[in-house]
Specification:
By secondary structure, the protein is an alpha+beta fold. It has eleven helices and 17 strands. β8 and β9 form a beta hairpin.
Amino acid sequence: NMKKFIIVLLLLIPINVFSLDLDITSSNAIMYNLNDNEVIYEKGSEEEVSIASLTKIMTCIVALENIKNIDDKITLTNKDFEGLVEQNAAVAGFRVGEEVTYRDLLYGLMLPSGADAAQSLARNISGSNEEYVELMNKKVKELGLSHTHFVNTTGLDIDGHFSSAYDLSKIFMYALKNDTFKEIITTSTYTTSNGRLTFKSTISKALSSYNLDMSYLLGGKTGTTGNAGLCLATIAEKDNVKYLLVTVKAPMDGGIPSNYTDQKKIYEYFMNNYSYKSIVDKDEKLLRIKTKYAKKDYVVINAPKTIKKYLDNNFSQSKVKYKYTGKDVITLDMDKGTKLGKIDIVYNDKVLDTIEVKLNEKQELDIGKYIMGHKVIIVIPSIILVLLVLLVILKKCVRKKR
């Protein structure tokens, strides 16, 4: 259907990467400037890798799209805890027989990364983990992702369960369109409806435990397994610029977790070295196009609006060039709104934007210019006509005298 087609089309927007080597320990990464929906940094972003609990981003959004009422109550059973102790999976702390809401499970899934919450959501929505995973893979196809396949709802290491930093960024971006999802991943603490459990997000815990100054972080999801290393998907905002960053497979080497130090390095590089610059000001004169037989000798094309771009702070307005391709003469038959061509706004040999050029008003005829431009066609026949008239008059005069 049309909605799915538009989503897939959005996901196919070309990557426009600022080529950088930021010397991070994560093997794969991708970062977006969400204001422009533009990739501004990437490292091995299309490689298929283990993704640990970043899987739960998909688990969560599929749940939200299939739950009728988020505050409906369900009771946890033994099935919700099967295999979790053996696999040493992180749990939220729910108990067998406990009555909770879907909302409680979703917060338990995303804040403390509870595998118990993942399995309970799967059982209650689809009947089993296997059927729920089918819904997750169906969503992968719907989003047009080519480097992702799910085998479980938790992200525990298993053959055939993988994604890429690029695909994860697209899943994350898609999920963020859901207001409840965004609310969950930007919440630092949540107490369950029965009051027994209080969850603190793994991100909030890490920031306070390691005294990390990353106040620009709005929220996100962590993930850790032996195969996946340290993974982190976050959103952030500073100076009215919104960012999304996914890092995968950072080494587990003790001390401050390297997924956080990597993300801090990437975020702060852009926050300190890039900002929005005016490349074109509204009403700025961009070019003049000649007219033919019109009262005005030329038409001035002005910028219809101010255009700002996210650029390096070393940006120099004087290096911006305008390259026009299109009609070089405006004729009288052209109506207001006629498409004349386009202006590429170029900086350091890169096209930053393109302005479509249209005629702002229909041109009025200048009779003098028209006559001067048609000397052969108008003046000479007119002289001949005058001479012929004079000749006829002369002949009549001669006859009268006779």
